[in-house]
Design brief:
209 residues, alpha/beta, Nucleotidyltransferase, domain 5, 2 domains, 5-stranded mixed β-sheet, 4-stranded mixed β-sheet, 6 helices, 32% helix
Length: 209
């Protein structure tokens, strides 16, 4: 198995090539790359690993949430490669990537800022009942709901803008960002759990459009 992984959803984008139980090449990239810039970076990654496009057996792509154009660029390339190479493809939600990196901590929130007054949230452990899947919420409503849970020192993971970090301050003890395993360390096992098949991926914007 040689799987190409594409992530332009995270603030710190990533291209990686995974073979079996190992990450054989990886590069952090600017998530604002255009489509004319992304393909050369993929080609360079393959060269570094001594591989070519025909060596790929799978493609995995983070479909969201993320920037509108970033998701379109990443998903379009993933779909094109899967179609041209006739290999299966898997769409990955960003919250699942974070969940794979959680380690031993069971009770935490995944949070992802989208606008100054809006964010995405998903709960794990004790918070899963309230937010079982990644959903789009207004910041005001989220702060109210967190307050109703009487949370004082919760763990969180994800990507928040400063305004959202400030809003979370009353509920988060100092240094309560969840310590995460490196993405590269969890990739092989994480990708083995994904469902690869022939399909056309769509960006996940989480807002019904």
């Amino acid at each position: 198995m040689k799987c190409l992984y594409i992530d332009l959803a995270s603030n710190k984008g990533l291209l990686a090539l995974v073979a079996g139980e190992s990450v054989i090449a990886a590069e952090h990239i600017d998530q604002r790359l255009g489509d004319h810039e992304l393909m050369p970076r993929v080609e360079a990654l393959l060269r570094v690993s001594g591989s070519g496009f025909t060596d790929l057996t799978q493609v995995a792509c983070v479909v969201g949430p993320g920037g509108f154009m970033s998701l379109r660029v990443a998903v379009a390339l993933a779909n094109t490669l899967a179609d041209q190479l006739q290999i299966p493809i898997a769409g990955v939600h960003l919250s699942d990537v974070y969940a794979a990196r959680m380690g031993n901590e069971e009770n935490c929130l995944w949070l992802h800022s989208t606008k100054k007054t809006e964010l995405f949230v998903r709960g794990f452990g004790d918070y899963e009942k309230q937010w079982p899947v990644a959903i789009h919420v207004m910041l005001e409503d989220f702060v109210r709901d967190i307050g109703a849970l009487h949370a004082k020192s919760l763990f969180w993971m994800g990507e928040l803008i400063p305004e959202h970090r400030l809003a979370m301050a009353p509920f988060v003890a100092e240094d309560r960002d969840l310590p995460l395993q490196r993405v590269e360390d969890v990739f092989p096992q994480f990708l083995q759990r994904q469902e690869f098949k022939k399909q056309i991926l769509e960006p996940w914007y989480g807002r019904g459009w």
